[in-house]
Amino acid sequence: MTVVTMKTEKSARLVEIFSSIQGEGMLIGKRQVFVRTYGCNLRCTYCDSPETLKETPIPSACRVEDPPGSWQFHPVLNPITTEVLTNIVQGYLSEYHHSLSITGGEPLLQEVFLREWLPEVHALGLQTFLETNGMLPDHLFRLLPHLDHISMDFKAPGAIGRDPDEVFQTHQKFLRIASNKQVYTKLVITPTTSIREIESVCEVISNIDISIPLILQPVTPYGVELASVSPSRILEVYSLACRRLKEVRVIPQTHKMMHLL
Fold first, then answer.
1. Contact at 8 Å (CB) between 25 and 248?
2. Is the entire prediction scored with pTM above 0.85?
3. Is the pLDDT of residue 44 over 80?
4. Which of 120, 127, 140, 194 is the most exposed place for a label (fewest CB within 10 A)?
């Protein structure tokens, strides 16, 4: 008989750990502990976390905010073990936090480490919240038992330079798995987002459940995306999505407005 063992990983390279208010999506306004992982499998034109990309030097240390909410950071050497990370997060819980946000980069690249660590997060009494680009469905399947909330970004093919059929087929497979948890989807609207891309997003959601929320997020000018989206365009996209889906909202990056991390 062949015995299959799951790979384990006791440490990971992280970019930063801090406490702040969630500024996007359905958990907007909730205070969370944020753990930002290193590495991403995509290159979005509007990426606002270039320090997570593999083109940048691997960080020798992770920035850790201490005390929580102070904007004061000290370095902790990478890679960080599950034990050290749990101690850091536990130290933040002298103040109320709704959940732990695993963000990036693309956190599912650290799926093996997260499978090892997230049970410790639940033991601390925190819910787990994954922010993901929705392009690694097999990774999600293995991590799913340890997640409470999932925010899945739809990636417009034009923003990541990928074949549209491949992108939306992958998103549909991913969202079908994610729909077993509390999930919402998000699409960053840029001046070049096409009507066809909006229609494809709506089709993917409606093929699974038209009640899955879609957040339309006007791009915050950054990187090569320096132009904002006009109010008339936002309303046009909103109206189009509402014809197909039950739950559509327009929510900008509110933490940028409040000058939060």
1. no
2. yes
3. no
4. 194
